[in-house]
Amino acid sequence: MIEVVAPGLLTTVQDLGREGFGSLGVSPSGAADALSLRIGNRLVGNPESAAALEMTLLGGTFASPTGGVVALAGSDFGATLDDAPVPMWTSVEVPPGAVLRCGPTKTGARCYLCVRGGIAEPSVLGSASTHLLSGLGGHEGRALRKGDRLPVAAGRRFERFRPKSVAPSALLQLAPTKILRVTPGPQSDWFSEEARHAFYSTTYRVAEESNRMGLRLEGAAIAEDVPAEMTSEGVTLGAVQITAGGLPIILFVEQQTTGGYAKIANVITTDFHSLGQLRPRDQIRFEAVGWDEARAALVAQERLVTSEGLIESI
Fold first, then answer.
1. Which of 7, 167, 212, 295 could form a disulfide with 254 if both were Cys (CB 3.0 to 4.6 A apart)?
2. Options 3.10.180.10, 3.40.50.2300, 2.40.100.10, 2.40.50.100; which CATH number does 179-305 get?
Protein backbone atom coordinates (compact mmCIF):
# COMPACT_ATOMS: atom_id res chain seq x y z
CA MET A 1 0.00 0.00 0.00
CA ILE A 2 1.08 3.55 -0.80
CA GLU A 3 -0.49 6.43 1.12
CA VAL A 4 -0.62 9.87 -0.52
CA VAL A 5 0.55 12.44 2.03
CA ALA A 6 0.69 15.22 -0.58
CA PRO A 7 -0.21 14.67 -4.25
CA GLY A 8 2.03 17.26 -5.91
CA LEU A 9 0.84 19.37 -8.84
CA LEU A 10 -0.54 16.55 -11.02
CA THR A 11 0.11 12.92 -10.11
CA THR A 12 -1.73 10.09 -11.84
CA VAL A 13 -1.53 6.33 -12.22
CA GLN A 14 -0.17 5.46 -15.67
CA ASP A 15 0.99 2.38 -17.58
CA LEU A 16 1.65 2.00 -21.31
CA GLY A 17 -1.91 2.94 -22.26
CA ARG A 18 -4.93 1.39 -23.94
CA GLU A 19 -4.23 1.00 -27.65
CA GLY A 20 -6.90 0.04 -30.16
CA PHE A 21 -9.93 2.08 -29.06
CA GLY A 22 -9.53 5.14 -31.27
CA SER A 23 -12.56 4.13 -33.33
CA LEU A 24 -14.62 4.44 -30.14
CA GLY A 25 -13.23 7.91 -29.41
CA VAL A 26 -10.85 6.74 -26.66
CA SER A 27 -7.21 7.82 -27.04
CA PRO A 28 -4.46 5.63 -25.57
CA SER A 29 -3.47 7.87 -22.64
CA GLY A 30 -0.64 6.13 -20.72
CA ALA A 31 2.71 7.49 -19.63
CA ALA A 32 3.74 10.75 -21.29
CA ASP A 33 7.33 9.46 -21.22
CA ALA A 34 6.80 5.75 -21.78
CA LEU A 35 10.54 5.14 -22.12
CA SER A 36 11.19 6.25 -18.52
CA LEU A 37 8.28 4.16 -17.26
CA ARG A 38 9.58 1.05 -19.01
CA ILE A 39 13.10 1.46 -17.64
CA GLY A 40 11.87 2.27 -14.12
CA ASN A 41 9.80 -0.90 -14.12
CA ARG A 42 12.80 -2.95 -15.21
CA LEU A 43 14.81 -1.54 -12.31
CA VAL A 44 12.32 -2.89 -9.75
CA GLY A 45 11.74 -6.22 -11.49
CA ASN A 46 8.32 -5.46 -12.99
CA PRO A 47 7.03 -6.08 -16.48
CA GLU A 48 7.65 -2.94 -18.54
CA SER A 49 3.90 -2.29 -18.75
CA ALA A 50 3.25 -2.23 -14.97
CA ALA A 51 1.35 0.77 -13.62
CA ALA A 52 3.33 3.47 -11.78
CA LEU A 53 2.85 7.04 -10.58
CA GLU A 54 3.48 9.87 -13.05
CA MET A 55 4.35 13.19 -11.36
CA THR A 56 4.30 16.45 -13.32
CA LEU A 57 6.52 19.48 -12.55
CA LEU A 58 6.04 19.23 -8.78
CA GLY A 59 6.24 15.84 -7.09
CA GLY A 60 4.26 14.44 -4.19
CA THR A 61 4.96 12.92 -0.78
CA PHE A 62 4.16 9.24 -0.21
CA ALA A 63 4.23 6.96 2.83
CA SER A 64 4.89 3.23 2.63
CA PRO A 65 3.41 1.42 5.65
CA THR A 66 4.73 -1.98 4.55
CA GLY A 67 7.93 -0.98 2.72
CA GLY A 68 9.05 -2.26 -0.66
CA VAL A 69 11.37 -1.54 -3.58
CA VAL A 70 11.03 1.61 -5.69
CA ALA A 71 12.84 3.43 -8.49
CA LEU A 72 12.54 6.97 -9.80
CA ALA A 73 12.89 7.44 -13.56
CA GLY A 74 12.58 10.44 -15.86
CA SER A 75 13.25 13.96 -14.56
CA ASP A 76 15.02 14.69 -11.29
CA PHE A 77 12.52 15.93 -8.68
CA GLY A 78 15.08 16.07 -5.86
CA ALA A 79 13.55 13.12 -3.99
CA THR A 80 14.43 12.15 -0.43
CA LEU A 81 13.61 9.05 1.60
CA ASP A 82 13.31 9.98 5.27
CA ASP A 83 15.38 13.07 4.42
CA ALA A 84 18.19 11.09 2.71
CA PRO A 85 18.70 11.83 -1.03
CA VAL A 86 17.34 9.20 -3.43
CA PRO A 87 19.39 8.61 -6.59
CA MET A 88 17.63 8.70 -9.95
CA TRP A 89 17.51 5.63 -12.21
CA THR A 90 18.36 3.32 -9.28
CA SER A 91 16.32 0.76 -7.35
CA VAL A 92 16.03 1.57 -3.64
CA GLU A 93 14.71 -0.49 -0.73
CA VAL A 94 12.09 1.37 1.31
CA PRO A 95 11.76 0.38 4.99
CA PRO A 96 8.25 0.01 6.47
CA GLY A 97 6.86 3.38 7.52
CA ALA A 98 9.34 5.40 5.46
CA VAL A 99 8.28 8.61 3.67
CA LEU A 100 9.37 9.51 0.14
CA ARG A 101 9.27 13.24 -0.68
CA CYS A 102 9.61 14.71 -4.16
CA GLY A 103 9.97 18.43 -4.84
CA PRO A 104 9.90 20.65 -7.93
CA THR A 105 11.57 19.38 -11.07
CA LYS A 106 15.23 20.15 -11.64
CA THR A 107 15.29 19.04 -15.27
CA GLY A 108 12.30 18.00 -17.42
CA ALA A 109 8.55 17.75 -16.86
CA ARG A 110 7.81 14.28 -15.47
CA CYS A 111 9.13 11.76 -12.97
CA TYR A 112 7.90 8.17 -12.54
CA LEU A 113 7.68 6.40 -9.21
CA CYS A 114 7.84 2.69 -10.00
CA VAL A 115 7.08 0.20 -7.22
CA ARG A 116 7.95 -3.48 -7.22
CA GLY A 117 4.71 -5.30 -8.04
CA GLY A 118 3.14 -2.26 -9.72
CA ILE A 119 0.17 -0.12 -8.71
CA ALA A 120 -2.77 -2.54 -8.60
CA GLU A 121 -5.63 -0.36 -9.83
CA PRO A 122 -8.39 -2.08 -11.88
CA SER A 123 -7.88 -2.41 -15.62
CA VAL A 124 -10.30 -0.46 -17.86
CA LEU A 125 -10.23 -1.38 -21.56
CA GLY A 126 -7.03 -3.29 -20.92
CA SER A 127 -5.16 -0.57 -19.03
CA ALA A 128 -4.88 1.00 -15.57
CA SER A 129 -3.86 4.37 -17.06
CA THR A 130 -5.73 7.48 -15.97
CA HIS A 131 -7.49 9.27 -18.82
CA LEU A 132 -8.25 12.61 -17.18
CA LEU A 133 -10.64 14.00 -19.79
CA SER A 134 -12.98 11.02 -19.71
CA GLY A 135 -12.41 9.87 -16.12
CA LEU A 136 -11.37 6.38 -17.22
CA GLY A 137 -8.90 4.17 -15.39
CA GLY A 138 -6.34 5.00 -12.73
CA HIS A 139 -7.47 5.82 -9.20
CA GLU A 140 -11.15 6.75 -9.53
CA GLY A 141 -10.38 8.21 -12.96
CA ARG A 142 -8.67 11.32 -11.55
CA ALA A 143 -5.44 12.85 -10.32
CA LEU A 144 -4.37 11.74 -6.84
CA ARG A 145 -5.46 13.61 -3.71
CA LYS A 146 -4.19 13.77 -0.17
CA GLY A 147 -5.32 10.70 1.77
CA ASP A 148 -5.61 8.35 -1.24
CA ARG A 149 -4.43 4.81 -0.56
CA LEU A 150 -3.09 2.87 -3.54
CA PRO A 151 -2.81 -0.92 -3.53
CA VAL A 152 0.47 -2.50 -4.69
CA ALA A 153 0.54 -5.98 -6.23
CA ALA A 154 2.68 -8.62 -4.53
CA GLY A 155 5.06 -8.98 -7.49
CA ARG A 156 8.44 -10.42 -6.51
CA ARG A 157 8.26 -8.90 -3.05
CA PHE A 158 10.09 -11.67 -1.23
CA GLU A 159 13.16 -11.71 -3.47
CA ARG A 160 16.37 -10.63 -1.83
CA PHE A 161 16.97 -6.98 -2.65
CA ARG A 162 19.86 -6.28 -5.01
CA PRO A 163 20.18 -2.62 -6.01
CA LYS A 164 20.40 -1.89 -9.72
CA SER A 165 20.93 1.22 -11.81
CA VAL A 166 20.93 2.25 -15.46
CA ALA A 167 24.27 2.35 -17.24
CA PRO A 168 25.44 6.02 -17.52
CA SER A 169 26.32 5.53 -21.21
CA ALA A 170 22.74 4.45 -21.91
CA LEU A 171 21.30 7.47 -20.11
CA LEU A 172 23.39 9.74 -22.32
CA GLN A 173 22.02 8.07 -25.45
CA LEU A 174 18.43 8.25 -24.17
CA ALA A 175 18.54 11.83 -22.90
CA PRO A 176 15.54 13.93 -24.07
CA THR A 177 16.21 16.49 -26.77
CA LYS A 178 14.71 19.86 -27.70
CA ILE A 179 15.17 19.14 -31.41
CA LEU A 180 12.22 16.95 -32.42
CA ARG A 181 12.61 14.80 -35.50
CA VAL A 182 9.54 14.60 -37.73
CA THR A 183 8.36 12.85 -40.87
CA PRO A 184 5.97 14.50 -43.36
CA GLY A 185 2.35 14.72 -42.24
CA PRO A 186 -0.60 13.60 -44.39
CA GLN A 187 -1.24 17.17 -45.56
CA SER A 188 2.36 18.40 -45.73
CA ASP A 189 2.02 19.02 -49.47
CA TRP A 190 -0.88 21.40 -48.82
CA PHE A 191 1.63 23.91 -47.49
CA SER A 192 3.79 26.08 -49.73
CA GLU A 193 7.55 25.72 -49.79
CA GLU A 194 7.79 29.02 -47.90
CA ALA A 195 5.43 27.79 -45.19
CA ARG A 196 7.36 24.53 -44.76
CA HIS A 197 10.63 26.46 -44.56
CA ALA A 198 9.16 28.69 -41.86
CA PHE A 199 7.99 25.65 -39.90
CA TYR A 200 11.44 24.01 -39.89
CA SER A 201 13.43 27.20 -39.31
CA THR A 202 11.35 28.63 -36.44
CA THR A 203 12.22 28.14 -32.76
CA TYR A 204 8.94 27.56 -30.93
CA ARG A 205 8.15 27.92 -27.24
CA VAL A 206 5.89 25.48 -25.37
CA ALA A 207 2.84 27.43 -24.19
CA GLU A 208 1.52 27.48 -20.62
CA GLU A 209 -1.80 26.05 -21.88
CA SER A 210 -0.15 22.76 -22.87
CA ASN A 211 -1.34 19.55 -21.22
CA ARG A 212 -1.59 15.80 -21.76
CA MET A 213 -3.99 16.39 -24.65
CA GLY A 214 -1.69 18.59 -26.69
CA LEU A 215 1.36 20.84 -26.65
CA ARG A 216 0.53 24.31 -27.93
CA LEU A 217 3.47 26.18 -29.41
CA GLU A 218 4.19 29.90 -29.56
CA GLY A 219 6.34 31.63 -32.14
CA ALA A 220 6.19 33.14 -35.60
CA ALA A 221 3.00 32.02 -37.32
CA ILE A 222 3.26 30.23 -40.63
CA ALA A 223 2.39 32.51 -43.54
CA GLU A 224 -1.15 33.30 -44.59
CA ASP A 225 -1.47 30.34 -46.94
CA VAL A 226 -2.38 27.95 -44.09
CA PRO A 227 -5.04 25.59 -45.46
CA ALA A 228 -8.56 26.06 -44.17
CA GLU A 229 -10.15 23.55 -41.83
CA MET A 230 -10.78 20.20 -43.48
CA THR A 231 -13.17 17.34 -42.94
CA SER A 232 -12.21 15.68 -39.65
CA GLU A 233 -10.15 12.50 -39.93
CA GLY A 234 -8.26 10.18 -37.59
CA VAL A 235 -5.13 11.60 -35.98
CA THR A 236 -2.07 10.02 -34.40
CA LEU A 237 0.10 10.60 -31.37
CA GLY A 238 2.74 13.17 -32.26
CA ALA A 239 0.83 14.68 -35.18
CA VAL A 240 1.64 18.37 -35.67
CA GLN A 241 -1.51 20.29 -36.59
CA ILE A 242 -1.39 23.85 -37.90
CA THR A 243 -4.29 25.90 -36.56
CA ALA A 244 -6.11 28.65 -38.43
CA GLY A 245 -3.84 31.14 -36.67
CA GLY A 246 -0.76 29.47 -38.18
CA LEU A 247 0.69 28.01 -34.97
CA PRO A 248 1.39 24.31 -34.35
CA ILE A 249 -0.18 21.97 -31.81
CA ILE A 250 1.53 18.62 -31.13
CA LEU A 251 -1.11 16.02 -30.31
CA PHE A 252 -0.22 14.20 -27.11
CA VAL A 253 -1.22 11.10 -25.15
CA GLU A 254 -4.80 12.21 -24.37
CA GLN A 255 -5.35 13.61 -27.85
CA GLN A 256 -8.72 13.80 -29.50
CA THR A 257 -9.01 10.85 -31.88
CA THR A 258 -10.11 12.96 -34.87
CA GLY A 259 -9.11 16.42 -36.01
CA GLY A 260 -9.98 18.95 -38.67
CA TYR A 261 -6.69 20.83 -39.03
CA ALA A 262 -4.03 20.04 -41.61
CA LYS A 263 -1.09 18.06 -40.27
CA ILE A 264 2.23 19.29 -41.57
CA ALA A 265 4.40 16.70 -39.80
CA ASN A 266 4.49 13.90 -37.23
CA VAL A 267 7.06 13.50 -34.44
CA ILE A 268 8.85 10.16 -34.83
CA THR A 269 8.23 7.45 -32.24
CA THR A 270 11.82 7.60 -31.00
CA ASP A 271 11.29 11.19 -29.81
CA PHE A 272 7.96 10.67 -28.02
CA HIS A 273 9.81 10.52 -24.68
CA SER A 274 11.25 13.96 -25.42
CA LEU A 275 7.69 15.27 -25.84
CA GLY A 276 6.84 13.87 -22.42
CA GLN A 277 9.63 15.87 -20.79
CA LEU A 278 8.84 19.27 -22.32
CA ARG A 279 7.90 22.00 -19.84
CA PRO A 280 6.05 25.26 -20.43
CA ARG A 281 8.45 27.87 -21.87
CA ASP A 282 10.87 25.23 -23.19
CA GLN A 283 12.14 26.11 -26.66
CA ILE A 284 12.09 23.49 -29.42
CA ARG A 285 12.73 23.10 -33.12
CA PHE A 286 11.69 20.54 -35.71
CA GLU A 287 14.05 18.56 -37.92
CA ALA A 288 12.83 16.70 -41.01
CA VAL A 289 13.95 13.08 -41.41
CA GLY A 290 13.08 10.34 -43.90
CA TRP A 291 11.13 7.17 -43.21
CA ASP A 292 14.23 4.98 -43.29
CA GLU A 293 16.01 7.19 -40.77
CA ALA A 294 12.97 7.19 -38.50
CA ARG A 295 12.76 3.38 -38.57
CA ALA A 296 16.49 2.99 -37.95
CA ALA A 297 16.32 5.34 -34.95
CA LEU A 298 13.45 3.34 -33.43
CA VAL A 299 15.23 0.02 -33.95
CA ALA A 300 18.39 1.38 -32.31
CA GLN A 301 16.44 2.77 -29.36
CA GLU A 302 14.56 -0.50 -28.80
CA ARG A 303 17.77 -2.52 -28.93
CA LEU A 304 19.26 -0.29 -26.24
CA VAL A 305 16.18 -0.24 -23.98
CA THR A 306 15.70 -4.00 -24.11
CA SER A 307 19.38 -4.93 -23.90
CA GLU A 308 20.84 -6.83 -20.96
CA GLY A 309 23.54 -4.19 -20.59
CA LEU A 310 21.04 -1.40 -19.87
CA ILE A 311 20.66 -2.35 -16.20
CA GLU A 312 23.71 -2.78 -13.98
CA SER A 313 23.97 -4.31 -10.51
CA ILE A 314 25.52 -1.96 -7.97
1. 212
2. 2.40.100.10
